[in-house]
Amino acid sequence: MGISDNDVQKQLRHMMAFIEQEANEKAEEIDAKAEEEFNIEKGRLVQQQRQKIMEFYEKKEKQVELQRKIQSSNSLNEGRLLCLKAREDHIRNVLDEARMNLSKISSDQARYPAILKGLIMQVCAYFYTNSLNLNPVQGAVISKKEGIQSQ
């Protein structure tokens, strides 16, 4: 007994529908797997780029902090230099004033021997406790009788 053409057509349609359904299910599985792999790769790339960005900004923060420290140090050093300059200027002014007063005192014959004697006493006291180099003024002579004389 033979199968009618109608039954064959029906079986073929049924087999084709089954194959098509299997193909659609397989295509959906492939799409789902591709979507999953895409999302995994996208997540990995996003995380990788996020890490690079974080490292970049951490590096920038360190550079900014270093620049801030350098600037702070430079400001502090500039302040110290200004202070040292002011101190040096003040010392220079005091020394200039002392030189002027010393030249005035050395020309005052009445006070000069007593002042020089007092200074020598201070030097001796200082020398007694510390090491000291003496640079006498040219023209000053010390005698036992008169104390200090100027020639």
UniProtKB/TrEMBL annotation:
Alphabetical list of InterPro entries matching this protein: ATPase_V1_Esu
Entry keyword annotation includes Transport: yes
Origin: domain of life: Eukaryota
Pfam assignment, any one: vATP-synt_E
UniProt entry keywords in alphabetical sequence: Coiled coil, Ion transport, Transport
UniProt feature coiled coil, ranges: 9-36
A GO term for molecular function: proton-transporting ATPase activity, rotational mechanism
One Gene Ontology cellular component annotation held by this UniProt entry: proton-transporting two-sector ATPase complex, catalytic domain
Secretion signal span: none
Protein family according to the UniProt entry: Belongs to the V-ATPase E subunit family.
Name listed for the protein in its UniProt record: ATP synthase, subunit E
